[in-house]
Amino acid sequence: MQQGPSPAWPGRAVADPARRSWDSPKPISIIGSTGSVGTQTLAIVEENPDKFRVVALAAGSNVTLLADQVKMFKPNLVAIGNESLLNELKEALADCEYMPEIISGEQGVIEVARHPDAVTVVTGIVGCAGLKPTVAAIEAGKDIALANKETLIAGGLSEGSLRRVILTASGGAFRLHLISFDDVRDWPIERLKDVQVADALKHPNWKMGKKITVDSATLFNKGLEVIEAHYLFGVEYDDIEIMIHPQSIIHSMIETKDSSVLAQLGRTDMRLPILYTLSWPERVYCSEVTWPRLDLCELGSLTFKAVDNVKYPSVDLAYAAGRAGGTMPGVLSAANEKAVELFINEKISYLDIFKVVEMTCDAHRNELVTSPSLEEIIHYDQWARKFSANLQPSSSRRNTVLV
């Protein structure tokens, strides 16, 4: 891919000295409330009713769960992204003593994101569908709790101190746990052609949604995090590294210019970064019953190894897309999202995922926009999905690899 300028934000997340300290529960809204991040966020709210309250919820199509969430958390506004399900949601809430305002479609999700009472907006929607709501929340002056897969660790360093960002990856589902926690071995590459959907969804460490679990197996999740780290922290791609860390205890590290390495450790529980994002810049005390102390002696050894680029071609694809900049990272993300969908629906093989993404990015070279508008980003996101869908094998037979 052609290398071009890829501007990054060089600033730091610093709390405003005039920032309000909340004596009462902080009002939040959640985009993607029925997904993995959304449900864990609500679990935190339920555990800390004195710290947080929900003022608005938005979900895609899970009417039953959304209705249950409305009854429990009593938001002022609720949005269902799938407009055809609006009446079904209203019927599910017909016997509810507390009736919120209910709206639907993309505009409804946007209204939840910029709800006037919300201070913090949790954006847990996968892919480009979350772009417009997030922009709306930013324009409305909200704090954005962006659903990342790694805890942000570079804040607080003086500018020029950072030498390297190190992102850790578990290695995904295709690992064999032998003998003990310390003895972790990978599937050989030759077995990957036989991977079934059920295999890819058996993550040894994390409980996540289907899409992100497959991304963990392919390592596209880390490739996307490389691009994310570049834009969040203004770090050059040559200074962002991925390491395989099977135990998933160290979630990310930074190396300062004097070679000191600082690591963020924690259990495999997304509630921790969600809670800190909601409470930032403060930290909330948590019961040791539900949040036990991390016992490193009990966990045993922490091991690391380099990424196998033959087994994980996603990594080279992500770095290339990031360096190309412009609309290419969005095309990479959209193509991967569509390819994973096709794989889960058993229309392509596991190895096809890499081919679909590579071919889509390659086809986008001649139309690359280096400084895209919001409309152009969305346009090429949709283009990439359509192009990727047309690359699926003509036969539905599994394990047919694209050529």
TrEMBL record:
Name of the protein in its database record: 1-deoxy-D-xylulose-5-phosphate reductoisomerase
PANTHER family: 1-DEOXY-D-XYLULOSE 5-PHOSPHATE REDUCTOISOMERASE, 1-DEOXY-D-XYLULOSE 5-PHOSPHATE REDUCTOISOMERASE, CHLOROPLASTIC
GO cellular component entries: chloroplast
Catalytic reaction annotation: 2-C-methyl-D-erythritol 4-phosphate + NADP(+) = 1-deoxy-D-xylulose 5-phosphate + NADPH + H(+)
Top-rank taxon, per record: Eukaryota
Residue ranges of every copy of the DXP reductoisomerase C-terminal domain listed in the record: 265-386
Enzyme class: oxidoreductase
Keyword Nucleotide-binding found: no
